[in-house]
Amino acid sequence: MSNDLLITVENVTLRFGGVVSLRDVSLEMRRGEILAVIGPNGAGKTSLFNSVTGVYQPQEGKITFSSQKAPPLSVIGKKTHRIARAGVTRTFQASRLFSALTVFENAKIGAEDHSGIGVVGALVKGPRTRRGEKESDRVASEVLKFVGLFPEAHTIASQLSYGARRRLEIARALATDPEVILLDEPAAGTNPSEKLELTTLIRRVRDERGVSVLLIEHDMRLVMALAERLYVLNFGSVIAEGTPEEIRANQDVVDAYLGTTHDETSA
Ligand SMILES: Nc1ncnc2c1ncn2[C@@H]1O[C@H](COP(=O)(O)OP(=O)(O)O)[C@@H](O)[C@H]1O
Ligand SMILES: [Mg+2]
Fold first, then answer.
1. How far is the CA of 127 from the centre of ligand 2 (A)?
2. Which of 63, 144, 234, 260 has a CA that sits 20 to 30 A from residue 248's CA?
3. Whose CA is nearest to atom 18 of ligand 1?
4. pTM here?
């Protein structure tokens, strides 16, 4: 892992009326790392993801995405699709699959988002889009093979097991050809064997595809097994940063989070 910075969050404050979701948050993510953000429900983890992906606009601070392919992008104030095009993609805490579409169609939507055809273009199928569509088919097949869902390509998404749905969400995100993938509680609601599969898959995303991973997850076994570094949020503030060993030994973190019953919760 290099010390080359991929995402920098500098003194970001995000408010909703009187609620402060992020309070002077600073964070650095290095290119190629698996970085986790942990903390109790309501700590601001999803707000941070929403700020990095352009869904929320913090009132103060600066967020920079440094692509390998383009000059650094100042994220705050940019549209979500602009940030996604630049190489930042995500999955959502609550599944956003198209449950009436097949596994293949769901993966293809990720590829089409990226190629600029869009969902409408894909449905209209003019001559202009046919070449792009062939490419989207190729990408969809490739990402489904990667997550182990190619045999289920023609299954309707709603019929998948919970763990398979979560893998499909990762496949759809990978189809956009990202440099970094933000995973918001990817293992929420899964059983222990599905959690193990997801752990292996997330590690392969980084190791085999070179995609950096920013991870929010409540399951401490999964987080500690995957993350090289962690940030801990509490009431919108960063209260600790360090390796899994450092975080486990940090008394503030134990008091705020690790000492409480947090497993299996989701908010
Ligand atoms: N769109 C919003 N409008 C108002 N308050 C919000 C909004 N999004 C998040 N918040 C508030 O920000 C705080 C942090 O929430 P969130 O980022 O979802 O935490 P976490 O993901 O760590 O559970 C909570 O108090 C939540 O109610
Ligand atoms: Mg959340």
1. 42
2. 63
3. 46
4. 0.90
